[in-house]
Design brief:
The complex is a heterodimer.
Chain A: H1 9-16, E1 34-37, E2 43-48, E3 54-61, H2 75-82, H3 94-98, E4 105-110, E5 115-122, H4 126-138, H5 144-163, H6 168-178, H7 192-197, H8 200-210, E6 216-222, H9 226-236, E7 261-267, E8 273-280, H10 287-299, H11 305-313, E9 317-325, E10 331-339, H12 345-361, H13 366-383, H14 387-399, H15 406-415, H16 419-429, E11 435-442, H17 443-447
Parallel strand pairs in A: 2-6, 7-11
Antiparallel strand pairs in A: 1-2, 3-5, 3-6, 4-5, 8-10, 8-11, 9-10
Helix pairs in contact in A: 2-5, 4-9, 5-6, 10-13, 10-16, 11-12, 12-16
Chain B: H1 17-27, E1 53-56, E2 62-67, E3 73-80, H2 94-101, H3 111-120, E4 124-129, E5 134-141, H4 145-157, H5 163-180, H6 184-197, H7 210-215, H8 218-228, E6 234-240, H9 244-255, E7 282-286, E8 293-300, H10 309-319, H11 325-332, E9 340-344, E10 352-359, H12 364-380, H13 385-402, H14 406-418, H15 425-434, H16 438-448, E11 455-460, H17 466-472, E12 476-480
Parallel strand pairs in B: 2-6, 7-11, 7-12
Antiparallel strand pairs in B: 1-2, 3-5, 3-6, 4-5, 8-10, 8-11, 9-10
Classes of the chains: A alpha+beta, B alpha+beta.
């Protein structure tokens, strides 16, 4: 959920990727960075790179939609929007004046586990932006009119993302139905009713609970002088006091699934869709690496197993996808397909399960494994063509993986994944009892009683 | 999915100090604590753009190489100078299907082998047609560039268009049409093209319609390929972690023996001059289950070589972008949409200008009013420098960031080459943007964006906004989604007359 739709792809990138490697032929540039923590608990990661006269500034807050208050689903994301309104020293939208108006840009996104604010500006504006980020961390000063107008924007974002696209609700339901206990069961965008219930009081409460120096990581990548940066950080961020009250953390554990969950829902789609999800361990778990490689083998490109089998050979699906959706507390491995005209949803489900079974029964070949690893290398190179992309990688390693150094070692970990590892995780997690199956059928088929 | 993400953040070299002071004044920041106002910027650092190097091979193929070494990636794009605009009227989608089928089999590789070889390199290979061009692009690690270019040359030069692949792709395209017709924004875009361009070449959906796709044969595709895919009608752009010498040597190795046919070159078709375009239509596509209404204002704009090009680009930036006037009025002030914006799509011939937003069905008519109002205001209240300078900075920033990635470089340079513009325009771009003033915007807006000659298209649940819309316009055409026909400017399926 991002502030503006132009950059919607970013959240996908974050959930879906962050893969690296280092195959012999390709020089994988290491990201050299400094890492320090201020006395108030704020962490600062910085990587100088003067290849272009711009700088990327990011602040990662370790609070996401899993921390939405009770009966306020969607609040962390709504709050992200409010962070662009008035603060003690800035008028509404002043962040745009400091970035967009000088040829840079800003945006932000909210995910289950974190909220990230970022700017890219000509490098001579770095001090200005450090001041601005420190200012909105220090406090908000939003009036009711601004709050309500921005809440309407978020409701339109809900309609544009969930209600208008033919499969928007399908994706929403996939997450909602996949978790029984953990707050991940509330999709980040929330619901219209809960958004309507939110108030200015909630905003102040949320800010003082989660927007604090010991819950923030500043990431700077690009054209800057490290000593100068330290001085600016000391000047603007160091004086912000760390609150004494404890920082709440979600303690709920998602229980293991005991039997297959099956759900059928109807929507405005013309072609039926089917989704499978499996509960997988938290992102930092060692099995995540093998699951990420398995994801590429299943759906990375037209030579991938799902595409080649369901779309190309059998021609029963118009689209297939898979995703190792890693999260901090518990993850999902998601497989989806949109059917071709006139095909049966049961057949497509069977075909997806058959591809899973093949990976359980037979180890992947060395060539197929190498192919997946090469795809992961290229993906990482593409992500890191820009300062902002590098900063996202660094922030994710530090905040979600708990080890900033992983920004440079992730590819080695993926390189180390063997065919046996893949077979092992496929057997371990892709069991009948650990499966949720969602059929998303056209409303019309319900009326006609057609069991498409 | 991951491959769609291109974050194009980049260099800037404008002097912004004066601008910054203006911004502070306008923001009216109060002076209190030591740090109540933002610290001013330091002096700017300038960057440089890479210089394209080019050579035309004896067979007429124009090769352009742009070196940018920061990341070990290379992107190579083969452009054919014709695309969807040369589709015969009854065969909409032919150019796109032809280009897409390049990667589905050659004389020595079948579709499966092509995908496997490309992906084993960690590379990606895409092809398709747009307006004015068809393309095949390969991008991946620079260490694999020779292998990637060999495959690129093979698919462009020796595709086989086997009938089983044609049938497979036809079904995929038909499924995609079905998917597209479920989304209000996508429907509105296709309807807008028909409304503005009527039955002329830019009017049809570039990926075809349900009816046209079923008519396309393997013979049509083979004919399209042999007519347009020839070295003297093509441009090869290679960008990223590669030197000019190496790039040209590789191009010569894999494309140098591509024979130029003796038949005359296809003409670069004049799609239309804009004179025949439709104005003043108000079209509602009634989709009762739409979760939101897509509201479009559409009219002709300018062509890419129009002397007004930079005036147009800056005018559009005044309207569009996060802090552009449309988003200010519709999203920021009123919370009516997640985002409103506009596009000036310049092509070989006059392309469309479109302003759009999605909103709850109930606000459909109000948003149409707001879009129209802002287009009018561009000439009645053109931006003074305090507004204009930041909007120019946006254009320059976007342009510069786009040149920061291999794909962005290749796309920008390819577009200049396609339209016969000097490649050194890259280095004049910033000055050209800076030269646009308030009077230029006013002139452009009144001459080229007159709202009276615009069309309104709304796709959504009509009963929520139609009464309000009909109060304003007598000529509203309401077409139920089940009767929508994108094959004709009438947009409505013919009545069965028995």
């Amino acid at each position: 959920m991002v502030r503006t739709s132009i950059r919607l792809a970013l959240s996908v990138l974050l959930l879906a990727s962050l893969q690296l490697t280092g195959l012999a032929q390709t020089r994988m540039p290491q990201l050299k960075f400094t890492d320090r923590t201020l006395a108030n608990g704020m962490r600062v990661l910085a990587a100088p790179d003067s290849s272009s006269p711009t700088v990327a500034i990011q602040v990662w807050y370790h609070v996401g939609s899993k921390d939405d208050p009770q009966s306020r689903s969607g609040f962390a994301h709504l709050f992200e929007h409010i962070m662009f309104k008035s603060t003690k020293n800035m008028k509404s939208e002043m962040m745009d004046r400091l970035t967009e108006d000088v040829g840079g840009f800003n945006n932000a996104f909210t995910a289950d586990d974190m909220t990230v604010y970022f700017e890219v500006v000509p490098s001579n504006y770095l001090e200005t932006l450090i001041w601005a980020e420190a200012d909105r961390l220090s406090g908000l000063n939003v009036d009711d009119a601004n709050f309500k107008s921005e809440r309407d924007v978020v409701k339109e974002e809900f309609r544009q993302g969930v209600l208008a696209p033919p499969y928007g609700r399908f994706e929403y339901l996939l997450q909602q139905k996949s978790f029984l206990e953990h707050p991940y069961k509330r999709p980040t965008i929330g619901s219209i009713e809960d958004l309507d219930a939110a108030s200015l009081k909630d905003v102040q409460e949320f800010h003082s609970t989660y927007y604090r120096t010991d819950n923030a990581t500043l990431v700077i990548v690009g054209d800057f002088d490290p000593k100068q940066l330290d001085a600016w950080v000391d000047k603007y961020f160091a004086p912000i006091a760390k609150p004494s009250r404890p920082l709440p953390r979600v303690q709920v554990k998602e229980p293991p699934r005991k039997s297959e969950i099956r759900v059928t829902e109807y929507g405005s789609n013309d072609l039926p869709a089917v989704g499978l999800t499996y509960l997988t361990p938290r992102q930092a778990d060692a099995d995540s690496d093998a699951l990420r490689v398995a994801d590429v083998i299943l759906s990375g490109g037209e030579s991938s197993r799902l595409y080649h089998s369901l779309v190309y050979t059998q021609q029963i699906a118009a689209e297939v996808n898979s995703s190792a959706e890693t999260r901090e507390d518990a993850s999902l491995f998601v497989l989806t397909a949109v059917l071709s005209e006139g095909k049966k949803v049961e057949d497509v489900e069977k075909a997806m399960l058959a591809e899973i079974r093949k990976l359980q029964d037979t180890p992947v070949s060395a060539a197929e494994l190498d192919k997946a690893k090469n795809q992961l290398v290229t993906n990482q190179l593409r992500q890191r063509e820009t300062s902002n992309g590098k900063a996202l990688a660094l922030g994710e390693a530090a905040v979600l993986l708990g080890d900033a150094g992983r920004v440079n070692t992730d590819l080695e970990r993926l390189q180390a994944v063997t065919a046996a590892d893949i077979q092992r995780v496929m057997k371990k997690y892709f069991t009948d009892t650990n499966r949720m199956v969602l059929y998303y059928l056209p409303e019309a088929s319900k009326k006609s009683g057609e069991g498409k | 999915m991951m491959n769609n993400v291109r974050d194009l953040f980049a260099p800037l070299r404008l002097c912004v100090n004066l601008l910054f002071i203006a911004v502070l004044l306008s923001a009216g920041v109060s002076a209190q604590t030591p740090q109540a106002t933002p610290p001013p910027p330091a002096s700017p650092r300038s960057g440089t753009f890479p210089k394209p190097v080019e050579e035309t091979l004896p067979n007429g193929l124009r090769v352009i190489v742009i070196e940018r070494r920061e990341t070990p990636l290379v992107s190579a794009q083969l452009l054919i100078k014709n695309g969807g605009e040369v589709d015969p009227p009854e065969l909409a989608g032919l150019a796109d299907m032809t280009a897409n089928l390049l990667t589905k089999g050659t004389q020595t590789r079948d579709a499966t082998k092509i995908a496997q070889e490309v992906e084993s390199l960690g590379a990606s290979l895409d092809s398709g047609a747009r307006w004015d061009s068809s393309f095949a692009t390969v991008s991946g690690m620079s260490s694999k560039t020779p292998q990637a270019l060999e495959i690129l040359a093979d698919v462009v030069r020796r595709p086989t268009f086997k009938s089983e692949e044609v049938e497979r792709l036809r079904q995929q395209y038909l499924d995609n049409v079905t998917l597209a017709l479920g989304d209000p924004g996508t429907i509105a875009r296709m309807v807008a093209a028909r409304v503005v361009f009527g039955d002329s070449p830019y009017g049809h959906p570039v990926s075809g319609t349900q009816e046209s796709l079923t008519r396309i044969t393997a013979a049509d595709i083979t004919k399209m390929h042999s007519r347009y895919y020839r070295p003297d009608n093509a441009i090869l752009v290679i960008g990223g972690d590669i030197g000019a010498k190496d790039g040209i040597a590789l191009a010569t190795k894999y494309f140098g023996d591509w024979q130029k046919p003796t038949t005359p070159m296809p003409t670069l078709s004049a799609a239309m001059d804009g004179a025949g375009s439709k104005t003043g239509r108000v079209v509602v596509i009634d989709k009762p289950d739409a979760g939101q209404a897509a509201v479009f204002l559409a009219r002709t704009g300018i062509n890419r070589k129009d002397p007004d090009y930079f005036r147009g680009v800056v005018s559009n930036s005044v309207l569009s972008g996060y802090s552009g006037r449309l988003n200010q009025e519709i999203r920021i002030k009123r919370g009516l949409s997640y985002g409103a914006g506009s596009q000036l799509d310049t092509r070989r011939d006059v392309g469309p200008f479109v302003a759009s937003a999605q909103t709850k069905n109930e606000s459909g008519a109000q948003v149409a009013d707001l879009l129209l109002g802002e287009i009018s205001r561009l000439s009645s209240a053109p931006p003074a420098d305090i507004e204009l300078t930041p909007r120019k900075a946006v254009v320059i920033g976007n342009f510069s960031r786009n040149l920061e990635t291999a794909n962005g470089l290749v796309g920008q340079v390819g577009s200049l080459a396609l339209y016969g513009l000097g490649l050194d325009e890259i280095n004049r771009y910033i000055n050209n943007v800076q030269a646009v003033g308030t009077a230029d915007i006013q002139k452009f807006a009144s001459a080229k964006l007159d709202p009276k000659s615009s069309n309104i298209i709304i796709v959504g649940n009509a009963k929520a906004f139609l009464p309000e819309l009909q109060k304003k316009y007598q000529n509203v055409e309401v077409i139920p989604i089940t009767e929508l026909d994108l094959n004709t400017a009438l947009l409505r399926k013919k009545q069965q007359t028995g």
